[in-house]
Design a protein that fits this description.
The chain is mainly beta. It contains 4 helices and 34 strands.
Length: 541
């Protein structure tokens, strides 16, 4: 994708007769080729040079550590650089929380009052967003919306109550398409007071990387993401650009992500899950990347007991089916260790990179192999909208709602750049969802794009999925904070406005969010408790 965009930009420059002698200056969504050194501050030059050095060298950086598990009620997470060995001969400079990829896992108990000190030792501002966990708006970690970004050398303390048990994760929300790509994420587990006990509890973080180590957004000018309300949706056509036809969804070529990992490791250095026969084992699948992954658990019957931390009612036994985990989503699987030997958890994505996304289940010192890896095997996929059994729920399609909002999720061209739109507008000019505390809110999400998936994530709330493509959900009541809407699909979801603040609602393929697919849920009368600082370099996406 990146090479395609760079080629397109160079062709356009040639057409208009513009010479460009240095195409290596662009970083983090800014078109640096349009700036002379005289136009840049000392800090700009320092950051650019530091970035170039980081992208091209791993010298003088410490190696990453094994991911730690931290328990208690007060924690310190330190954002810092390191060199990460993926185990397949690839070493890259990364950004980390606590020197590991993923960052330290935080484990707390339901009802705990939690304090997290974020210490920034990086050269750029960062934040932490607690993805999926309802926290007070001031603690949501969105620069320019709920707080100012934490500057280099500074510390910020987050405080919240871990009120809802489940599997969550945390990540930077400052220039997040780049900072998450570099490794700034970790997991947060809230242990429930009444949850079923298991013998082994493993968290598997799915991600994908660019093995060259270059930022996913380098060379792309996203200055047009703030296009005005007159942007026209051109999903169903192509738009001529100086004589060239350009498919509106060309951006969905994600082939530059050529290294897939589980917990930062490739197949040659794969994650090993040790079990004992008879164990009840929980697998917490977390997608920290920008691509959906089909996960197959070889040799075991299992249940999906929760999604996005929310329980599934009466989950059925599954075998030889894949579970698709979209960007930002989480799925908790439980199985009984009754297949001694070595088995695998692997990706069945339709790409050569999938062969690296593997974990191994091992009984003691057993060397018996129960299965061979088979990432090309065709298996049915679990339909989570038909899984589990129906029961009483908070909302239905017959509920009387106070707010009814429709989101058409599309693509468009603006100033020769790709943008991703909500109702033909891009953030910050998207129309917000204005609500009052206590409102019952219905949202229709319709993907009008040709080929782009849009995993839509709502901050600060869970929503119930009521229907898919006009048909009511058949299985368990489905509560989520992230929902993948595929091309042509339409979902109706509902939530109660019970957490006052200004909350983002955006696509968690952060390439799309950074190019406009963001809106906000705004509570009437709410006033943020911070003052935006123009010098903080706040970049909410």
């Amino acid at each position: 994708m990146k090479k395609l965009w760079l080629t397109l930009i160079l062709v356009l420059l040639a057409i208009v007769g513009v010479a460009c002698s240095n195409s290596e200056g662009s970083m983090k969504g800014h078109d640096m080729s349009k700036m002379n050194e005289e136009d840049m501050s000392d800090q700009d030059m320092s950051n650019m040079n530091a970035s170039k050095g980081k992208e091209n060298s791993t010298e003088n950086l410490p190696s990453t550590q094994t991911t730690k598990v931290k328990t208690g009620k007060e924690f310190t997470l330190t954002a810092k650089e390191a060199t990460h060995d993926f185990g397949n001969g690839t070493k890259l400079p990364v950004w980390t929380y606590d020197g590991s990829v993923p960052g330290s896992q935080i484990r707390v108990k339901q009802g705990d009052k939690v304090k997290v000190n974020l210490k920034n030792e990086l050269s750029e501002p960062v934040t932490i967003h607690w993805h999926g966990l309802p926290v007070p708006n001031s603690q949501d970690g969105i620069p320019g919306v709920t707080m100012n970004a934490v500057q280099p050398g500074k510390t910020f303390t987050y405080e919240f109550t871990a009120s809802v048990p489940g599997t969550y994760w945390y990540h930077s929300h400052q220039d997040s398409v780049n900072q998450i790509d570099k490794g700034l994420y970790g997991t947060l587990i809230v242990e429930g007071k009444d949850e079923e006990k298991v013998d082994k509890d493993y968290t598997l973080v799915l991600d994908e990387w660019i093995s060259s180590g270059e930022s996913s957004m380098e060379g792309m000018d996203h200055g047009s993401m703030t296009s005005d309300k007159d942007t026209k949706d051109t999903d169903d056509s192509t738009e001529s650009m100086d004589g060239m036809n350009m498919n509106m969804d060309m951006k969905e070529d994600m082939s530059m992500y050529d290294l897939y990992t589980i917990n930062g490791k490739s197949a040659k250095n794969m994650e090993t899950l040790k079990v004992t026969e008879g164990d009840t084992v929980k697998l917490r699948l977390v997608n920290a990347g920008y691509i959906s992954h089909k996960i197959h658990v070889h040799g075991y019957d299992f249940k999906i007991v929760s999604t996005d931390g929310q329980p599934i009612n009466d989950p059925a036994i599954i075998k030889d089916q894949t579970v698709t985990v979209a960007p930002g989503e989480r799925y908790d699987l439980v199985f009984k260790a009754n297949n001694p030997g070595t088995s695998y958890i692997e990706s069945h994505d339709d790409t050569d990179a999938a062969k690296n996304m593997v974990a191994k289940i091992v009984y003691g010192n057993s060397k018996k192999a129960n299965d061979k890896l088979n990432p090309k095997e065709s298996l049915p996929n679990v339909d989570i909208t038909k899984y589990g059994k129906t029961t009483k729920s908070e909302f239905s399609l017959d509920t009387k709602f106070d707010v009814d909002y429709k989101m058409n999720l599309g693509t468009a061209m603006k100033d020769n750049s790709m943008v991703y739109t909500i109702n033909n507008r891009t953030y910050p000019n998207t129309e917000p969802l204005d609500v009052k505390e206590g409102d019952l809110v219905k949202v229709t999400l319709k993907n009008t794009s040709k080929s782009a998936n849009h995993p839509m994530h709502l901050h600060g709330h869970f929503f119930q999925v009521l229907s898919k493509n006009g048909k009511p959900i058949e299985g368990s009541p489905l509560m989520k904070d992230t929902l993948n809407v595929k091309p042509g699909e339409e979902y109706v979801v509902a939530f109660k406005a019970d957490n006052p603040g200004n909350w983002m609602f955006h696509c968690h393929d952060l390439h799309h969010a950074s190019a406009g697919m963001v809106t906000e849920v705004k509570y009437k009368g709410y006033k943020a408790s911070f003052t935006p600082d123009s010098n903080a370099n706040n970049k909410p996406e």
